[in-house]
Design brief:
It is a multi-pass membrane protein. This protein is an alpha/beta fold and 930 residues long. The chain contains 29 helices and 33 strands.
Length: 930
């Protein structure tokens, strides 16, 4: 009997420990409760309810998961109300649920996540996509779908891919809409694009068609035609309907919808034809779920469950995987010895005098461990790999890009956070290195609103009655470029005519008004005028605006319509007259080097010829005259002395070639000097100005002042000049009389100045390359279109005709406006002199080596005869005697003497032979006589 009671007691203890309210580390509860809260009759809620119920069945039928524990999901309808959703979530906190699947609404998620943090109950939402539901602020809120942060990044990359710069965002004005658009704004800004207008619509059910029409009428008056719609399905369809009524779904518009539309298209397809007609050409994003056998099997099962009444969308798949995520985490929780127990919250017990019964809500003790297991879960679900990143977002975010066409829709590409836009499924790219280069971004062709296959430009000139405020400088000098018509706000001049002609070429009207800038007493600062575009004071600036670096940092310029660059203008004098003009072809340095080389070559030839040539011998005075005469006579190729040595002839040939080049160059330069008017200025250009300390003039308001300071010229040397008359006066006075040595200004001004000022010329080269353009705000489409118009003006000749109309020149300007020097400098002949010098050096080296060889032979002979080496003075005397000794008694005539001696010996032998033959008959005759 005792044994029987003990057995019964054990069974009772086992039953109590497994009822879900208590237990030990080795037992599992029979039932574990999970809450579910969303709107049952919404587009997402209808499919999510079925998906959750089927997931619960699959989990409970899986013997390898939750072994012996039944998963129960208690569903509660929030009825599309943020308030009811929050109340329903609070009710779950009074029960024994260990997690809540939901909420569906981002608005509810924001408020209830504070309760989840306090009571340590994880909330797993398959539909709340608000990117500001931060994992740091709400650690117990887990998003089991993709955040709108990625959806908006995909949208921004689509905008960048097609080259658009500005978009208009229409959104529901709650946490879901505002925070999603904020994420879009950040993503666009990272790509140098922006939201030009945000149109919020009330999230309440009381929004009427008239309210939407008021919003869209304002949108239609804007410049951008790229519209991003981020709303809930009922409001989204109302926007499309009103936009279709207002003609905003036609040619030129681009509509990009977030994934609210694909959730409807996937679950309610086919839609009525009237709904499809109002959405033609819309681009839509859809959360990408890779194809798999499990997904296809579930889709087939889904059709049987629903009877084809509504389809399967991505949110249903995420809801299904969320249930499995909870099951996997609970299984790990129980395996680690976790128990389901709750404890009272002392903070709630301290609240007195309340009928809300807040003390019924308790803290889930196992919440931290369950949350840890949820974050560490890693399995393959219907949506693909189900795993969390360190920031608690799902791995591998990706979207399909859908184009609504005809009675259906087609996929034109994919976006993934891994590789951007592509026409290949993202899962096929994960095995390759990520490549987000612009050339790798691809989409299929799109049919845009209005049945247009050409990419829309994306903007039009706004038709809101607002005129562009175009800033124009009030110039007090060079009024041919820009000048205000007295008594009006109208302007005339070269720049104004170019702007007007370019605007007339645009395919749309550009209403504008010119706004004067400046005090009328001095030229305004163009940099300050350009900066007013960034503050909104001007919508553009027209005038003689130079395109320079510091201005391009804040605004965009059109294509340059006039070439410009800084030049130096200075006084000059004519140099082709005077008794000493014949010296001008060569610089002083050149004349000096020529003189030195004439003497040097004469000395070298004398040295090489002195021992072997009688013409280079004689008394010292005669030899000096010979050197001078020989050197100078080679200038005219009239030297009488012949060279007999090989070295001397080599040096002379090279020198005569140098003299030929010098003579030819001198003749050509002198001819040019006497036949062409030559101008001279001590200033050669910017570099020569920098080397002096003389004052330099510049035009008031020009960027020349800043440029000169940047290259190191002190500000104390710079003199501001306000008109061409001041230019002329300051240049004529010169630095000594309170004027300037030169003026630095842009070429167009200087050319106009020189058209009636013949006493000055441009010196040196243009040292900056820039142009004049019209300035507009950053990324303004008007700057691009006007650039095209300016190129058209240039190609058809209109730009040149406008130039000739305003900037025609007088006869003075027909002269050469630039100073050019015809002097020949040493650097032009350095190679010739170098060759000649090297030849002389080599010849002298060979000559002295020969002398030293003879000297050693002579010294050796003297040492043998005298028996001593001799003194230093005697050796020097021997060396000098060898240098001065005439060479005709030595080796030069030795061969001649040998030849003469051999010839004389042969003649003597011949004579003796003839004599002997003569004597023989005489002797014989004598013998005969005797």
């Amino acid at each position: 009997m005792n044994a029987l009671w003990i057995f019964v007691l054990c069974l009772l203890c086992f039953g109590v420990g497994s009822d879900g309210l208590s237990g030990n580390g080795t037992s599992r509860p029979a039932v574990v409760n999970v809450g579910g809260i969303f709107t049952f009759d919404s587009t997402i809620g209808r499919v999510a309810k079925i998906a959750i119920q089927e997931a619960v069945k699959d989990v409970n039928s899986n013997s390898s998961l939750l072994r012996g524990t039944k998963l129960v999901v208690k569903l509660q309808n929030s009825n599309c109300s943020g308030f009811l959703g929050m109340v329903g979530a609070l009710k779950f906190m009074e029960t024994d649920v260990v997690a809540v699947i939901g909420p569906q609404s981002s608005v509810v998620a924001h408020s209830i996540s504070h309760v989840a943090n306090e009571l340590q109950v994880p909330f797993l939402s398959f539909a709340a996509t608000d990117p500001t539901l931060s994992s740091l602020q709400f650690p117990y809120f887990l998003r089991t779908t993709q955040s709108d942060l990625y959806q908006m990044t995909a949208t921004a990359e689509i905008v960048e891919y097609y080259g658009w710069k500005e978009v208009i965002a229409i959104f529901v004005d709650d946490d879901y809409g505002r925070n999603g658009v904020s994420a879009l704004d950040d993503a666009l800004a990272a790509r140098r694009c922006r939201i030009s207008y945000k149109a919020g619509i009330s999230p309440g059910a009381a929004v009427t068609r008239g309210d939407v029409m008021d919003v869209l009428v304002k949108v239609a008056l804007m410049e951008s035609r790229i519209i991003v719609l981020h709303a809930y399905p009922p409001l989204g369809f109302m926007v499309f309907s009103v936009a279709h009524y207002l003609g905003m779904m036609g040619d030129g518009y681009v509509w990009i919808s977030t994934d609210w539309l694909t959730s409807v298209l996937d679950s309610s397809f086919p839609l009525p034809q009237d709904k499809m007609d109002i959405m033609q050409g819309v681009l839509v994003l859809r959360q990408h779920t890779p194809e798999s056998e499990n997904k296809r099997a579930f889709s087939s099962r889904w059709n049987k469950l629903t009877g084809g009444s509504f389809g399967l969308n991505s949110y249903a798949l995420h809801a299904y995987d969320t249930v499995w995520l909870v099951a996997h985490a609970l299984d790990s929780f129980f395996n680690q010895g976790g128990t389901i127990s709750f404890s009272d919250d002392t903070k709630l017990q301290s609240v007195e005098g309340s009928n809300l019964h807040l003390e019924a809500m308790s803290i889930f003790d196992g919440g931290p461990l369950l949350l840890k297991n949820l974050l560490q879960s890693d399995f393959i679900g219907l949506t693909g790999p189900f795993k969390f990143n360190p920031d608690k977002s799902l791995v591998l975010p990706a979207y399909d890009i859908i184009n609504v066409i005809g009675t259906g829709f087609r996929r034109v590409g994919y976006w993934s956070n891994y590789s951007g836009l592509s026409v290949s499924p993202p899962e096929s790219l994960y095995s390759r290195p990520p490549n987000r280069s612009s050339t790798n971004q691809k989409l299929y062709s799109v049919v845009w609103p209005g049945n247009n296959v050409q990419k829309p430009r994306g903007w039009v000139f706004p038709n809101n009655g607002k005129q562009l405020r175009i800033g124009v400088p009030i110039r007090v000098s060079y009024r041919e470029f820009v000048s205000q018509i007295p008594g009006t706000n109208n302007f005339k001049g070269f720049c104004i005519d170019v702007f007007t002609a370019a605007v007339n070429l645009l395919p749309y009207a550009v209403p504008h008004q010119f706004v004067p800038f400046g005090n009328g007493h001095e030229n305004p600062s163009y940099t300050e005028m350009v900066k007013l575009i960034t503050t909104g004071n001007f919508d553009g600036v027209v005038g003689d605006i130079a395109i320079v670096t510091n201005r391009t940092r804040v605004v965009d310029f059109t294509q340059p319509y006039a070439a410009s660059g800084l030049v130096v203008v200075a006084p000059f004098k004519k140099l082709n007259s005077g008794g000493w003009a014949f010296l001008r072809p060569f610089s002083g340095q050149m004349w000096g080097v020529i003189t030195i080389f004439f003497l040097f070559v004469g000395i070298v030839v004398w040295i090489l010829e002195h021992r072997t040539n009688d013409e280079f011998r004689g008394p010292p005075k005669q030899q000096l005259i010979t050197i001078l005469w020989f050197s100078l006579s080679t200038l005219f190729f009239a030297h009488r002395e012949n060279t007999v040595s090989t070295l001397g002839r080599m040096v002379l040939i090279i020198w005569l070639f140098v003299v030929l080049i010098i003579n030819s160059s001198y003749t050509a330069s002198l001819t040019s000097i006497f036949t062409v008017q030559q101008l001279y200025s001590p200033i050669k250009g910017l570099e020569s100005l920098k080397e002096t300390d003389e004052p330099i003039g510049f035009q008031v308001g020009s960027f020349a002042e800043r440029y000169l300071e940047e290259i190191g010229i002190p500000k104390s040397r710079l003199v501001a000049l306000g008109s061409p008359e001041q230019y002329a006066t300051a240049l004529q006075r010169g630095p000594g009389k309170g004027g300037v040595a030169a003026v630095v200004d842009e070429r167009p001004y200087i050319e106009l100045f020189l058209s009636n000022q013949c006493k000055f010329r441009i010196v040196g080269q243009e040292f900056t390359k820039s142009g004049w353009g019209f300035a507009f705000p950053r990324d303004s489409p008007l700057a691009v279109d006007l650039s095209t118009a300016i190129l058209t003006l240039s190609e058809n000749g209109d730009l040149q005709r406008i130039h000739d109309k305003w900037l025609s020149r007088s006869a003075c300007s027909l002269e050469n406006a630039e100073l050019e020097s015809d002097r020949l400098h040493l650097r032009s002949f350095s190679g010739l002199f170098l060759i000649c010098g090297i030849a002389c050096f080599i010849a002298l080296l060979i000559y002295f080596l020969q002398i030293m060889h003879k000297y050693r032979q002579a010294a050796k002979a003297e040492a043998i005869s005298d028996g001593s080496t001799g003194s230093r003075s005697k050796r020097l005397q021997t060396l000098l005697s060898l240098i001065d000794e005439k060479a005709d008694k030595s080796s030069r005539d030795s061969k001649r003497r040998k030849v003469d001696r051999s010839v004389s010996d042969e003649n003597m032998e011949n004579d003796l032979g003839r004599d002997s033959r003569r004597r023989e008959p005489q002797v014989s005759s004598q013998n005969e006589v005797h």
